[in-house]
Amino acid sequence: MVFMNSMVPFDRYARGLSNWPFGGSLESFFDSPFSSTSSEAFPVNVEDAGEKYVVTAELPGLSREDIDVELNEGRLSITAERKESDEEKGKNYLHKESSEWRATRGVYLKDAATQGLSAKLDNGVLTISVPKQDEKANVTKISID
């Protein structure tokens, strides 16, 4: 015999799991913390500075060799990858929260120039300067006969 008072509606059960464990949802517990679909992979800011865009990304603990920046048809992509060194692999950790990960963030800058780009990594902050160009008309008006 099933007692109705022992049943929990599914939406209340899901709401209870939304705070598991310690404030995160059950789904996010199994996700990679640095997946490419997560906006929390690493913070990115885009500033319109008049004649250029200034894009900053916070990438503490990474070197230039761990970061790839690419502009492809107006889409600026930043890929960061942390790999475990052979020295770290040989250690006998009792608890280890750092791991290998890879994350990509991208922004679309429709009037980005392909010349004069620059990037600098300083104290874990990547700063990319993207000059603007005159926007090309991608739309052609066709008259109807």
UniProtKB/TrEMBL annotation:
- Could you name the domain of life of the organism this protein comes from? Bacteria
Query: Is the keyword Ribonucleoprotein in the record?
Result: no
Would the keyword Ribosomal protein turn up in this protein's UniProt record?
no
Q: Which InterPro entries match?
A: A-crystallin/Hsp20_dom (IPR002068), HSP20-like_chaperone (IPR008978), Small_HSP (IPR031107)
What's in the keyword line of the UniProt record?
Stress response
The SHSP domain, residue ranges: 35-145
**Membrane-traversing stretches:** none
Identify its protein family: Belongs to the small heat shock protein (HSP20) family.
Name of the featured protein = Low molecular weight heat shock protein
State the organism named in the record: Lancefieldella rimae
